[in-house]
Amino acid sequence: MKHRLILMLGKGQPTLRGDRQLSYRQTSYILAEQPEFAVKTPIMVEAILQLYKEEGFEQLHIFGTRDSLWPTIYGHCVSDHLTDENFAFFESIQQKILAKEAPAEEEMHKISEAVGSYLQIPTSCKLIPVGKSEAEMWDIFREIIAIPQDGDRVSIDITHGVRFQPFILLMAMAYFRAVRKRVKWGKVFYGAYELSQDYFQGLSPIFDLTSLFSMFDWLAAATAFKEYGDLSPINQLLGASLPRAEAEQFLAEGARFTQAIQLYETHHIRLYAKRFLTYLNKLDTQPHQAAIPFHLIRAALTAFPEKLQQTQTESEMMLLLAQRHLQNEGQIGLGILAIWEAIIARFADIFGVDSRRIENYLELSKIVRGKKTWPSALLPPRLQGFSMKVQRINSMRNSIAHTQSEDLVSDQPIITEVWELYAYFRASLPEEDLEILHALIRFEPEELY
Length: 449
Known about the structure:
Radius of gyration: 32 Å
CATH superfamily of the largest domain: SSO1389-like
Strand order of the largest sheet: 3-2-8-7-6-1-4-5
Strand content: 5-15%
CATH topology of the largest domain: Rossmann fold
Order of helices and strands: EHEEHEHHHEHEHEHEHHHHHHHHHHHH
Number of domains: 3
Helix content: 40-55%
Number of helices: 20
CATH architecture of the largest domain: 3-Layer(aba) Sandwich
């Protein structure tokens, strides 16, 4: 398990300055919050290694194109013990760069050894394509993500490189976070040379941008809640910045709300949604470490609970849950179950009974499936096929919850049919004409012992 530092080596912008000076300028680098200690060097990685010794970097990876400043970094690293051999190698590499020829593999190995010896850290210098095509950009990305092993920690320096190459480094970090979770995030550095004269008395600050890039975590956490009702990622983020008592209270309120949804506790969902929203509002006004990112994702956390609060009936609320499940095709089964519960809730309202009592639930199930005399002739044409639609959704529900009596996987995606059933019940369940069933069907639940 190693702490690896990855960076891009740039070109020094010779074409932008209108000359062919292949070098970085000598720069005094500082920590923005500790300007009293400076490291003067033309290569920022040297300053990072000195100013952030506590990070314990164990491996350095430098990527660059065929015309990156390989002579500059090599020349700086051998300048204290310059020999004729070193100078000849420096000149040969410089001529290759000017001619836009790529250094050979053994030459890159020699540069790696010189840099590693000078900086006192094992170093790998590797050539990458410029990225002039989509294929080349993917090649760069694959090179970067192949570096760490599980358990490694990765930090990056996004200061140099062709303008879009640091973006590839950032995407690699996002990849590690989302896919290779055993690769740990380290630091994200940027050396702001352009701010030195106007803001830092000629000194170049190195910014640690790690806290900003924690937004990757907050966005993933917001998505987990929005799509799946999973609050655990947000709990982890807030738990690191809130006092323990407040973190535990957030966890408790969030757990009640999400569990009520997951277990279809229809009589409690809106109550717990209200309590969850109340606590979110309270949390939003308190100072804590994660206040800014939390505030930025707050709308994603409150959107669905607020929609639930706006529903007028349990049936409407369950249809809203069904819609949410169906919009994520990975939750088709939950969508089917929610549609069924919406039907039961509507008929519980019609007959004025509590569907939480099992005998009432079973009787409602018989009625909606047409197992009792169904006065179809008295219903308007748009409701004539109601019981058949209910039987279809019930068949799907039984296949999911009980016997697998039907293979729901077919060439015709089941999601299409389920969406059609959702649309039908969304339109038909609020129909006032269903109210007449209360007078026409006898509600006779069997007593259960």
